[in-house]
Every structure is written in C-alpha cells, then in structure tokens.
Amino acid sequence: MNVVCIYSVSYYERLDKPLATQCDIHFGLASIASALKEAGFNVDLLIITPDTNIKETLMRYFRGTHQYARLFCLTAVSSEYNRMCEVAKEIKQLNKYGHINMGGVHVSLNPESAIECQYIDSICIGEGDRAIVELAKELENGTNPTKINNLWFKLPSDQALIERNPQDTFIEDLDSLPIIDHSLWYPFIKDPVAMPAVLAGRGCPNKCSYCSNHKLRNISPGKYVRFRSPWHILKELNTLWLEQPGIKSFYLEVETLSINIPYALELCESLKAFNKARNINMEFRVNISLYKNLLQDEKCVTFLRALKSANVTTINIGLESGSERIRKDILNRPDYSNKDIIQFSQLAKLIGLKTSLYIIMGLPTETHNDFLETLFIILKCEPDYVQYGFFFPYPGTDIYKYALEKPPFNPSFERKRPYFDTKEFTKKQQIHEYIWMPVFLYNNKLPFYSILILMLKNYVVQSDTLTKIFMRLRSLF
C-alpha cells in the first residue's frame, strides 16, 4: 500500500529543492515515514511551498504511481496549518478514498480546533510512530480504523461525531524505533552534505512559556525527556556518512545535553570512538541549557572538556533575552543570571568551544532598553554566532495569552516580522534593529559584502512582495 507524507515550508531554497540542508528535515514526519517503511509500506514524500501548485503536484504524483495512495500523513505547525488544510482539500478532490491524517505540534496542542478542518479524516496527538503504522495496517486490510491510541477519528456515519481515543505513554525506548531514513529527503535538499541533523533525544526538562514542550509533556503519561543510546546514534551517523561521503559535521539535535551529564560523557566517548575507528575528524554541534547549579558543579569543566575532546566544535546556548525580568516573569526560563551566562560562555571559549546564542526580539513587555541590555550581554559573552528572530506566540502555549490582546496576525511570517507594536518598543524600532543586527554582530568579523547581504535579507523579508521575488530569484540558482 502506498503512503504519502506531506510537509510544508514557508521559506524555501528552490521549488525543486526547497530545503537548504538536512537540518531542515522534519523529525516527527521523518520518524513516522521510517516506521512505515520498516513495516513494509511504500512511502513517498512531497514538500509544499507557498509557490507550489498543489493540485498539479498531486496530479503529477498520482500519474507517476500505479495505484492511489490509501493514506496521506500531513504535519503542521501553526503557521502551516491553513496551507495543509488546502492540501487536504486538493487530495480529497483527486482521491476521495484516501484517508488523510494530520499531526504535528499545532494539532497536538489544539486538537479540538484542528480536527474541524473538513477535509481530514483523523488527527494524531503526540507521538505517531506506532499509531500511524497501526492506522496504515487497518486501512490496508480494508477496515474502518478505530480504537487506535493517540488518534482521533471522524466517524464515517457522521463527521460531526469524533472518536477521541486515549493517549499511549511516551515511547521510552527510542532505540526500539528505526533510525530515520534520510534518503527520502535527499531529492528535496539543496546541500545534503552540509551538517545533517541527527536526533539524539526527545523532550525538554524546561517549562519555557513560549515553547511547546511545557504543554506537550502533559499530552501523554510516562517519561517525557528521553535519550537514544550512543550506539543507536552512531548507527545513524555511520549510515549517513556512508550515504553522503562529503559530510564533515553533524548537528546532534536534542533540546539540551546538559540535563544529563553522565549520559553526555558517555556520548562523547562514543563520538571519539566513531572518529578514531574511521580515522576521520568529524565535527559535532549540540544544544546546551544553562542551569545555575551547572556552574557550581565540579563536573562542569569535565563536561565541557569532554565535548571538546569529542570534537564538538560549537555549543548552542539559549540566552533569549538579556533582561532577567523577562526571562523570569515572561519566558519562565531556567534560573540563571546574566553573570552566569557570561561566565559559562567565557569558560566554554577558554576550553576551546565555539558558542552560539539564541535571541528572541520583540517579546511581551520588552522595552527598547531591555533589547539594548540583550545586546550588552551578547558583547560580554563574545559568541561566535547569534541566531535571532522575532517572538511568535504559538497557539496552545502559556504565552499565547498575550496574542489574544491584539488583532489577528499573518502566521506565515513567524519569527521574521515583529508581532507586538508598543510605545516602549515599536515595530518600526524592532525592524530597524533587526535589519542592522548583522552590523552589530559581525563588524570586523565578516567581509563588508557578507554583512550587507545579511542586512538585505532582513530587509526583504519585511515585505510580502519582496520576499516572493527573492525566493523566486533564488530558485533560479
């Protein structure tokens, strides 16, 4: 039986290769596709952009297969939900017998409103690795699927009636899942050898108000923060290394490696062994959450040195805001002071690790002085990279309450355009700071023309017309 997995992106490289690198792979959908393939189903992948002719793309796919797909698996974040409903509509018009399931973070956090999309038959709440395989098996057997945990179904007799099934526990043994089949995604990636991302774990221990994790952890019972064993990660690294010999670095995707130091040390030893066994010098990049007690722990230096010895070259650290008030009262970040993050950044650099800070601009209650304080902390931390974007309130998160106080916003430009417009930090001010940020960050570090290109990109994305022209021009190269 054929199964089609469909992913949608707002910003793309080219129409034929919309994803820039393997870091742009959607892990949830990729994991479900891999589980379906292991179960013996024929799995195809389609990626939709704002400039994709959805009907033509689907018709071309149907003409190229010998049988209609019986199951369509769609995933959606909040900014892509409406477009995925359009995809579902086109599917139903071309293949009325296809069963359409939609999952993803937006659906999991807003199931009652998500299932109102009239063209979908079921939704997946939380992890779908096993539920979707069970769904596919029932469809293959010709039965009406029912009583599958983590899935809600519209009843065939009356679509206004919903079968709401209970939630399974979180999958604790991540090694029991197949490693992700990256080959499904290669045709859609512009540069498949540029730092592929490999999932090292699921779940986050933090309860940040702007992130989905604080809500997702309550969807199912069981352990939420889980790690794959080092040998299982190495198995995937080796597969990718053999498939794409040009790979020189990997991004180990996990919310934070610093929550479990003994595991992190074990993983570092395995990464060292991986390089030694192949006589290579593969580089790695990981995420770190700073906790106040981490700096006070004698294992902190041991941890950072272990990262260095495993050839982890860069660590990503979430600063988010230089305002301690905003971090505590608005974002509910872990307890760390500006002094702590400066000290940790300097320690990491002393050991020889590069650092990258995450920054959010235009936060609720943020003033221009708060933003200037963020810039001051960045200067003190002396990061090698800074990843910055605007605040976006995702429906279902605690911080979404602030979004209800303002008119509707076009979600297609999440994190690219300012959301709030206040006297203390107007949209005009925010856009000005956003455009000029590359000068602040990379003056005397990058050539002038590189800084100018980054500024131009930040300017272009503020306009619908310029953004569309830019993406279409980029598609030509």
Notable traits:
477 residues; Rossmann fold; TIM Barrel; 15 strands; alpha/beta; six-stranded parallel β-sheet; 17 helices; 2 domains; 38% helix; seven-stranded mixed β-sheet; globular
Question: How would you explain this protein's 3D organization?
Answer:
- The chain is α/β, with parallel strands linked by helices.
- The protein has 2 domains: 2-164, 3-Layer(aba) Sandwich (Rossmann fold), CATH 3.40.50.280; 193-408, Aldolase class I (TIM Barrel), CATH 3.20.20.
- Helices cover 38% and strands 17% of the residues.
- The chain has 17 helices and 15 strands.
- The strands form 3 sheets. The protein has a 7-stranded mixed β-sheet, sandwiched between helices. A 6-stranded parallel β-sheet has the order 8-11-12-13-14-15, covered by helices on one side.
- Strand 3 (71-75), helix 3 (81-94) and strand 4 form a beta-alpha-beta unit.
- The protein is globular.
- The two termini are 37 Å apart.
- The relative contact order is 0.09.
Overall tally of structural domains: 2
Structural class: alpha/beta
CATH topology of the largest domain: TIM Barrel
Q: The biggest beta sheet, please?
A: 7 strands, mixed
> Measured on Cα atoms, how large is the radius of gyration?
23 Å
